[in-house]
């Protein structure tokens, strides 16, 4: 916190700019201080600021530093980072902040007006009451104008399109109440309703704020799909000089240099070099693909072995990855047409309320009361029926349920996600990375002794090949210490070679291919040769979870991009039909077919190839190990190796909807009790204030029962 | 009555001051990263 503002600003460097980097590895106070204290020591970096919630670092640096330099600086501190292509403006955060400001103003005004009102209710008379009414008006009028603006705007937008939503009765109620109260104040009447109007705004804004925070969480990771592609590349010019070039100025025909460990910034064809690419973002398969001169490569692919020279064939919006992004966007459109539960309730609630208020006005006028008194009663009806409790019913229940789910490692990103999840009737699973762990796990490590383990770890640490990474993770988990080896050589496409106490050791491609569907590596120690098979293990509770979903009334299906032969085993283990060889567009078509049969699909997937399907599903869940794009497209993300959170989330969603419906019922009960009183003209500002607070309180208490809904 | 003319503006002023403080905190980004703020109190002072 003290890194800025408190210290005198150093004289600004010649030219500085700010870059944003996503650093998923930040998870504790130690990481924050390591980054914020460590980075400014690097030449050219002025300051760094960590945003823990978004797992981002904002770095103010010399314009001469390029994103790879910043990445390298973070890597030296021990953090993997990914430059964010375009920080963009955070619209959602701004909206949330505006709501918070409105809430603060409404809260301030409600408290002060309530203080004045209490003295009126306890018997202030004559000039004192008059003064208090005027003071209330003075506070209430600017407050209604400022804090009511979000409602007025939304109501106006709905009315202009000939629709009505929850905000229409709210706006009419608040405006009518305020103007009637103003009239009463000017004409020296006994009752002013400023307190009711402002309190109503306060309660409703509280609900709105909770709702917006829920949605804000969805956008916290707006790393977007384009994060998968590099923000730029080293481009070779005619003279053979290389210079850093941003991704958006890359053009077909340019030649770019891609070092090991970097992502490609554009689609292209390999001109020179021999390496392996990790294209799991496209296929969901973790095995790297070997590429040589002449092969076609896609933007976003991670170069895992040696340097490559690539001729750009398509850049920017023409790349394969941009295509998937477009598919996802189109698929997501259908979701935005979803009408939320609260708005569906408002569709019939709003006309009812207006009719009721109009009828009581007509009734009292016909019955002989003056226009003034009839209008006062109509206003009381509007105020008492204003959907105060309804406005809180949904967001409070959702926030409580999401908090419970979060403690179980399930992150709900979107406010309406639980509503949609509760409605699903068919669950479609991806295979790799979803039903399976999506990473190779070495088997038979116990056949080797301790010394071999430490040699293996030392070898595996030297490479970013997925099998090496898997080996390293497995060995480190067992507490193995790496042995000291002589210089390790990595031969692309072959393996790692070194010497241990004069004996040659290596971790390399097997000399003989044994099975077709199994990954393997070969470990050689002198003359000893061991084959290390790897399998992509099924998540420990995949079968139980699918059974639990079926018990909950969902149909299940596996849709994968793999060969059908690779699916047989898993289909048998989980007792589910599996469809193979599906490309991203095929999955989308499959989902559309299921939708056409009237089913509401829950899509569970992880790869970028599932992205469009995740966006198209009625609800979607992705594991935290999924590609960023998929995590972004999914409504719900779960942590850990177990699949059980899918079933837990479904159960919690259904309970949440039950509680929301109970809350609606409670709000209607309250109206049945209070509306006759209002129509009878018995509701004073005091009664309205008490009734409103009480109904909101009951709704909140009911929602709190969801606290352990995720057990 | 004379007491009220002093006390009510005073009470309102206090409330307004709190409101202004909240707005200031919001504008300087103190609510942008609540998770981080919770962590930062564990960060050791800078070593320079």
Automatic annotation (TrEMBL), chain A:
EC number: 3.6.3.3
Annotated transmembrane regions: 102-124, 130-148, 168-186, 192-210, 348-369, 375-397, 664-680, 686-704
Domain of life per record: Bacteria
GO terms, molecular function: ATP binding; ATP hydrolysis activity; copper ion binding; P-type divalent copper transporter activity
Protein topology in the membrane: Multi-pass membrane protein
Domain (HMA): residue spans on this chain: 17-82
GO terms, biological process: copper ion homeostasis
One Pfam family named in its UniProt record: HMA
GO cellular component term, pick one: plasma membrane
Compartment(s) where it occurs, according to its Swiss-Prot or TrEMBL record: Cell membrane
Keywords: ATP-binding, Cell membrane, Hydrolase, Ion transport, Magnesium, Membrane, Metal-binding, Nucleotide-binding, Phosphoprotein, Translocase, Transmembrane, Transmembrane helix, Transport
Family: Belongs to the cation transport ATPase (P-type) (TC 3.A.3) family. Type IB subfamily.
Protein name as it appears in the record: Cadmium-translocating P-type ATPase
Gene: cadA
TrEMBL record, chain B:
Domain of life: Bacteria
Annotated Pfam families: FixS
Listed name of the protein: Cytochrome oxidase maturation protein Cbb3
Native organism: Sphingobium lactosutens DS20
């Amino acid at each position: 916190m003290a890194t800025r503002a408190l210290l005198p600003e150093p004289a600004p460097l010649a030219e500085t700019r700010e870059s944003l980097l996503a650093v998923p590895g930040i998870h504790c106070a130690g990481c924050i201080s390591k980054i914020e204290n460590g980075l400014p020591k690097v030449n050219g970096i002025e300051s760094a600021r960590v945003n823990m919630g978004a797992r981002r670092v904002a770095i103010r640096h010399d314009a001469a530093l390029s994103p790879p330099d910043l990445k390298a600086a973070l890597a030296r501190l021990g953090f993997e980072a990914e430059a964010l292509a375009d920080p963009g403006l955070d619209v959602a955060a701004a909206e949330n902040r505006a709501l918070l400001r409105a809430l603060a103003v409404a809260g301030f005004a409600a408290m002060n007006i309530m203080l004045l009102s209490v003295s009126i209710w306890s018997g202030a008379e004559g000039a004192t009451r008059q003064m208090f009414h005027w003071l209330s008006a003075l506070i209430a009028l600017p407050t209604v104008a400022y804090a009511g603006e979000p409602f007025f705007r939304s109501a106006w937008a709905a009315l202009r399109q000939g629709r009505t939503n929850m905000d229409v009765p709210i706006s009419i109620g608040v405006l009518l109440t305020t103007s009637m109260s103003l009239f009463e104040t000017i004409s020296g009447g006994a009752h002013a309703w400023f307190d009711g109007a402002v309190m109503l705004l306060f309660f409703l804004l509280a609900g709105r704020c909770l709702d917006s925070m829920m949605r804000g969480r969805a956008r916290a990771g707006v790393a977007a799909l384009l994060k998968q592609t590099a923000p730029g590349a080293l481009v070779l010019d005619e003279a053979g000089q290389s210079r850093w070039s941003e991704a958006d100025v890359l053009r077909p025909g340019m030649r770019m240099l891609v070092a090991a460990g970097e992502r490609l910034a554009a689609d292209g064809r390999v001109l020179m070099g021999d390496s392996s690419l990790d294209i799991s973002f496209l296929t969901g398969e973790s095995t790297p693909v070997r590429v040589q001169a002449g092969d076609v490569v896609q933007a976003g692919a991670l170069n895992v072995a040696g340097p490559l020279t690539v001729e750009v064939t398509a850049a920017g919006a023409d790349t394969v990855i941009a295509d998937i992004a477009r598919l996802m966007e189109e698929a997501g459109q259908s979701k935005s047409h979803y009408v939320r539960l609260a708005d569906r309730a408002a569709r019939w609630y709003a006309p009812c309320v207006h009719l009721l208020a109009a009828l009581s006005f007509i009734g009292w006028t016909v019955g002989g009361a003056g226009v003034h008194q009839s209008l006062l009663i109509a206003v009381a009806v509007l105020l008492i029926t204003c959907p105060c409790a309804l406005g809180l019913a949904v967001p409070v229940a959702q926030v409580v349920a999401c908090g419970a789910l979060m403690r179980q490692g399930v992150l709900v990103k979107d406010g309406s996600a639980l509503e949609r999840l509760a409605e699903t009737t068919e669950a479609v699973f991806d295979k790799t990375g979803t039903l399976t762990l999506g990473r190779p796990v070495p088997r038979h490590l116990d056949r080797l002794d301790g010394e071999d383990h430490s040699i293996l770890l030392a070898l595996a640490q030297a490479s970013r090949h997925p099998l090496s990474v898997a080996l390293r993770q497995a060995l480190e988990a067992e507490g193995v210490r790496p042995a000291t080896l002589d210089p390790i050589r990595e031969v692309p496409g072959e393996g790692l070679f070194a010497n241990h106490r004069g004996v040659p050791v290596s971790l390399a491609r097997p000399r003989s291919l044994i099975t077709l569907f199994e990954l393997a590596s070969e470990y050689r120690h002198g003359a000893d040769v061991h084959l290390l098979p790897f399998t992509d293990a099924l998540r420990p509770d995949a079968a139980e979870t699918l059974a639990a979903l079926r018990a909950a009334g969902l149909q299940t299906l596996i849709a994968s991009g793999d060969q059908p032969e690779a699916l047989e085993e898993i289909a048998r283990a989980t007792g589910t039909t599996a469809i193979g060889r599906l490309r991203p567009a095929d999955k989308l078509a499959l989902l559309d077919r299921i939708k056409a049969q009237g089913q509401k699909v829950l899509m569970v997937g992880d790869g970028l190839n599932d992205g469009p399907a995740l966006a198209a599903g009625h609800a979607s869940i992705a594991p935290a190990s999924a590609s960023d794009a998929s995590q972004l497209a999914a409504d719900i993300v779960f942590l850990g190796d177990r699949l059980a959170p899918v079933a837990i989330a479904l159960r919690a969603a259904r309970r949440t909807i039950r509680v929301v419906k109970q809350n609606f019922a409670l709000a209607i009960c309250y109206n049945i009790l209070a509306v006759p009183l209002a129509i009878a003209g018995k509701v004073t500002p005091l009664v309205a204030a008490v009734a409103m607070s009480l109904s909101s309180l009951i709704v909140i208490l009911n929602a709190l029962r969801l606290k352990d809904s995720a057990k | 009555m004379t007491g009220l003319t002093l006390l009510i503006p005073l009470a309102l002023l206090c409330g307004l001051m709190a409101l202004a403080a909240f707005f200031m905190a919001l504008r300087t980004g103190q609510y942008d990263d609540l998770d981080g703020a919770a962590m930062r109190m564990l960060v050791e002072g800078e070593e320079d």
